[in-house]
Amino acid sequence: MFKKKFQNKLNQLSNNRAIKESIPDWLDELGLKELNERWPSEIHNLNHKAPIILRTNLLKTNVQELNNCLKREGYKTKKIPTPMPYC
User: Fold this and answer.
1) What is the pLDDT along the chain (87 residues), one digit of tens a residue?
2) Are residues 10 and 29 in the same domain?
3) DSSP string across 12-72
4) Cα–Cα–Cα angle for 46, 52, 57, nearest 5°?
5) Which among 58, 71, 75, 86 is least surrounded, fewest beta carbons within 10 Å?
6) Is the pTM of this model over 0.70?
7) Using an 8 Å Cβ cutoff, are 63 and 56 in contact?
């Protein structure tokens, strides 16, 4: 009996977007009010880990040295073009 009640409660909670996406109820209500049908996909996408982007402090090192240091530490790196050249 307990197992069945527990499973039913778990099923109910797993259908609750605020619990499933790990956000407070007030944020779920606000998002739904502001974004309507776009809210479920927005909140789902907000729960993904964002990429890390580093900028090189050219007064202390250069891009290649920083890249080599990060690779030695086990990080994957990729150089991306800057939108505007540094002065």
Assistant:
1) 777 887 877 777 777 888 888 889 999 999 999 999 999 999 888 888 888 888 889 999 999 999 999 999 999 998 888 776 665
2) yes
3) HHHT-HHHHTT--HHHHHHHHHHHGGGHHHHHHHHTSPPPP-----TTT--HHHHHHHHHH
4) 145
5) 86
6) no
7) yes
User: What CA–CA distance (Å, rounded) separates 14 from 59?
Assistant: 51
Query: How many domains does the structure of the chain reveal?
Result: 2
Residue 69, CB-side half-sphere exposure with 13 Å CA sphere: 7
Query: Token pair for residue 16?
Result: 């609750």
- CA–CA distance, 33 with 25 (Å, rounded to integer): 12
Answer for the pair 77, 67: CB distance below 8 angstroms, yes or no. yes
